[in-house]
Amino acid sequence: MIDDTICTSCNKIPELQGRIEAEGVRQSCSVCRQDQQKAIALEHLLEQIDKGFTNVYGHVDSNAFTEEEEGDDLEEALDSLTGWDSAVTKLIAETLCESEPGYNPSKDGEPFYSEAQNYVKLPDEYDSGNDELGASWDKFKLGIKHEARFFPESSINELREIFGNLENAHGSIRDVIIRSIGPGTDISAVFRAREIDINNKKSVIKLLKNPADKFGAPPPRRARANRLNPTGIRAFYGSLDPMTCLAELRLPIGSSAIVVSFNITRKLRLLDVAHLPTTVKRLSPFHPNYVRSHQFLSFIRQFSFEISSPILPKDTHLDYIATQAVAEYLAHHHSPAFDGILYNSSQEGDGINIVLFQHACAVESSGELKGSNYKFYDETDFDDDDRGGYHIGYMLSYKPGSDQEVYETDEDLKFLTDAPDSGKSPQNQALQYIEGSATVYNVERVVYSANSLPIKVVPIKNGA
C-alpha cells in the first residue's frame, strides 16, 4: 500500500497537490490508473496527511468534550475532512492502518489508525493560555507590570516573538488584521465626540470656534493614560460612526454631546482586531503552519478582547501597562510600523473604535473663527422633516472682525501659557476637520444589553 501512487487529479488538497507537483514524476496513478500522470508514492505524503488528520481528529475517548459521541470510522472521518473520492479515501485509510509506526502513533499500546477505532473532531479553538504565544503574553504582562518597566529588553523580545508572526501569518489572517485606511479605502473618515453642557453657551462657543483643535488629540502635557497610551503621550481615540462615539462616552439621559468628523488625509497602516470573529477563514489542516496559525489567531482574539473590554471604575493604570507597551511596540519597534489599531466597542454592539498613535494623530489646523459677539442659540425649523412636526437645531453666529476670546475659568486662561504642542508637526498630521460636521446629540434614552444566569439553591450533603 505504501508504494502505491497518487496523482494531482485524484488528490484535491492544495497543500498535497503542491507537494506532488514539486516532487512527483510522470508515472501510473494507483487510483485512476492513468499513465503519464504527475504522481508520487504515498509514503512521501503520509507524514503530512497524518499531521493534517491529527490536527482535527482524535479518538472518541481523547477529549472530555467528545467522549459521549460515537464518532466516525477512519474512512468517514477522512471523507469529511478532505472530500476525496471514495477510492482515494479507502486507499489512504488502508495505507495509514498498515503503515510504519512512525506514521501510526500509538496510545496505551493501541494503534492510532485502526479499522476498529472511531474518531471525533477536536475542539475548534486553541486555548491561548495553553500554547506558546499565550504563555509568552502572560509572561510579558507579568514582567512589564511587576519586574522591569523601563528598557526591559526581555519584554521587547517577548513582543517580537508574539507579533513577529503578523507579517508572515497565513494570508487568510494577514489580509484581515493588517488594514490600510485613508483616501481611496472603505474607511476614509472617523468621528469623535465630547460631552457638553448645552446650557453653558460660553463653553460650547469655545469648542465650536476651533473644533479642529478642541476635538483633536489632547496636547502632550494634557494626555491622560488610557488603554493604549501612557500619560504624556498623545493619541487620537475615535469611532467609525457617531452613535458609537456617543455610546463610548456613557452619557446619562438628558445630557448632550457634540460629534464631529475628520477626513483621513493619508494612507495609514492599522492593526485590525475588530473583524476577526466573522472574516477569518478556516485554515486547511494540511497546511504546515496550521497549529501555529491557529494559536496566533487565538492570541489575537484574546488581545482583541482585552483592549475592547470596558474600562471600569476599579481599573487602575497598572491594568493598562501591557496594552500601552504593545501600542508603543507596534508604533516604534515593529517593522513596518503601525499607525494605530481598530478594535471593537464594548458599548455599542457592532461599533468599531479606532486609536491613532502619536505619529499619526495630529489634525491639520483649520484656523479659528475670528470675530466678536459670539452667540449660540436654538434655531426652530417648522418645515416638516422625515419624523413629522418640527425639529430644533442649533446655530453659532458671530460678527466678523477682530477676535474676542471667551474665557470661562482661570483654567482656560492657564491653557494659554502651555508650551507649544510639538505633537502637531506636519509629519504627524493625518486628520482634517470636516467643515460643518459638528452636530449636537441629546441623549433621550439608553438601551442596556445583558445576559442572565440563574442561581440554583442546592442543599449541601453531609460530609461535602
Described by its quaternary structure, the protein is: single chain
Number of individual domains: 3
**Total helical elements:** 14
Tell me, rounded to a whole number, the average pLDDT. 80
The Cα radius of gyration reads 30 Å
Name the shape in a single word.
Answer: elongated
- Decide which structural class fits the backbone: alpha+beta
Distance between the termini: 58 Å
Main sheet characteristics: 5 strands, mixed
Lateral arrangement of strands in the main beta sheet: 8-12-13-14-10
- Work out the strand percent: 15-25%
- Summarize the amount of helix as a percent range: 25-40%
Q: What is the total tally of β strands?
A: 19
Unreliable spans are 126-130, 380-384, 387-392, 402-420
Describe this structure in words.
With 464 residues, this protein is of the alpha+beta class. It has 3 domains: 5-121, no CATH class; 125-368 and 408-464, no CATH class; 370-402, no CATH class. The protein has helices spanning 14-23, 46-56, 74-82, 86-98, 132-146, 153-163, 171-177, 201-209, 211-214, 242-249, 276-279, 290-308, 321-332, 410-415; strands at 5-7, 25-27, 37-41, 57-59, 106-107, 110-111, 119-121, 178-181, 189-196, 236-239, 256-264, 268-272, 340-344, 352-356, 362-364, 371-381, 391-400, 429-433, 439-442. The chain has a 5-stranded mixed β-sheet with strand order 8-12-13-14-10. Strands 9, 11, 15, 18 and 19 form a 5-stranded mixed β-sheet that branches. Strands 1-3-2 form a 3-stranded antiparallel β-sheet, covered by helices on one side. Residues 126-130, 380-384, 387-392 and 402-420 have low confidence and may be disordered.
